[in-house]
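Case study 2.
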Amino acid sequence: SRFIKEGKVRRTYLGVSGIELSQVAPLSADLPKFGFLLKNSKTSSAVAKGSPAAQAGLKPGDVLASLEGERIGSPYPLQLLLTRYAPGVEVEFSVRRDEQEEKVKVVLGEM
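Prediction:
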C-alpha cells in the first residue's frame, strides 16, 4: 500500500546483522529461544557504523527481543517485522543486554 501511495518502493534500514535465535536456540541452552542476536561475521559488522542501530546505541551481543511489543522470531523474523514500518518512523525495541532488558528507540533509515 505504501507503493501505491508513494509510487516507489521504500525499504526500511536498521543496519544490523546477526542470528535469528529461533533457528539456533535448540542447539544451545545458554541462548534465549527467540530474538535476534547482534553478532559480527567474517563479512559484516553486527552494527553498521553510522546506521540507525548505531545511532540508537545498539551493540554486538545485544539481543533484540521484540519490536513494538511483537516478539522477534518464528513466525515473525526481524526482517519481516521491519517491513511493517516506513523509513523515518521511530520504533521501540526490547533489548536484552548483560542479562537485563531495556527499551531502545530507533528511527528507521532507508536503504
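The mean pLDDT is 89.
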